[in-house]
């Protein structure tokens, strides 16, 4: 058991590959934050649900890899982006965020596992990038995100999560005011919460097994 207040951790329902109707089912139960990985799919869902009278105001989070040619749409459609892995992407999101919208909430993705194939900033460059991103207009730097190696042992998962937590603590000591650690998914959320996560990204445990055959 982790002795933390329930309100200290938010649930992000990861609805990628599931239809708008599935989102609406959870929205009717009071869930308002949803995460999407694929831009076109997300755009269709967001548009479809925008005019649903019984649907509460939803907050959409982009959690997939951000390609340069898609930053304009992401900056317009989403309230949060969890997967900013380089300064160039942050700069494009900043310049393309519509002026009439609130600042875009940004999380820097950190490659805590050290895998060459995985997106994310090297932990050693996080402080410099965060300092620059925090000064960009139209963005609000809120914290960090990581995706650990799912094949790691429990102690290795803890090491990765605690590394991300330590990085955010150090950034706050430099004068930043970060409040969000996006860590933990269906299979490792308990460990992530024990290590300080403030937002868990849960899909399979809520929606069921995904079918990627049409992608």
UniProtKB/TrEMBL annotation:
Sites bearing N6-(pyridoxal phosphate)lysine, chain numbering: 16
This protein's record includes keyword Signal: no
Domain Alanine racemase N-terminal residue range list: 10-210
Keyword Transport in annotation: no
Keywords: Pyridoxal phosphate
PANTHER family membership: PROLINE SYNTHETASE CO-TRANSCRIBED BACTERIAL HOMOLOG PROTEIN, PYRIDOXAL PHOSPHATE HOMEOSTASIS PROTEIN
Annotated function: Pyridoxal 5'-phosphate (PLP)-binding protein, which is involved in PLP homeostasis.
Family: Belongs to the pyridoxal phosphate-binding protein YggS/PROSC family.
Protein name (database record): Pyridoxal phosphate homeostasis protein
Source species of the chain: Limnobacter litoralis
């Amino acid at each position: 058991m982790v002795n933390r207040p329930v309100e200290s951790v938010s649930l992000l329902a990861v609805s990628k590959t599931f239809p708008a109707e599935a989102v609406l089912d959870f929205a009717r139960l009071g869930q308002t934050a949803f995460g999407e990985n694929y831009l076109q799919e997300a755009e269709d869902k967001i548009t479809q649900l925008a005019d649903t009278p019984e649907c509460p105001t939803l907050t959409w989070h982009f959690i997939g890899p951000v390609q340069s040619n898609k930053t304009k749409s992401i900056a317009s459609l989403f309230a949060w982006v969890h997967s900013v892995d380089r300064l160039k992407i942050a700069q494009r999101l900043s310049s393309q965020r519509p002026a009439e919208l609130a600042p875009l909430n940004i999380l820097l993705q950190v490659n805590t596992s050290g895998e060459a194939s995985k997106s994310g900033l090297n932990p050693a460059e996080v402080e410099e990038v965060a300092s620059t991103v925090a000064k960009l207009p139209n963005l609000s730097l809120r914290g960090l995100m990581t995706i650990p190696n799912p094949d790691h042992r429990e102690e290795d998962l803890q090491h990765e999560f605690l590394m991300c937590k330590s990085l955010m603590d150090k950034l706050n000591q430099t004068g930043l005011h970060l409040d969000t650690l996006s860590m933990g998914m269906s299979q490792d959320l308990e460990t992530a919460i024990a290590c300080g996560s403030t937002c868990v990204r849960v899909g399979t445990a809520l929606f069921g097994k995904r079918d990627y055959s049409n992608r």
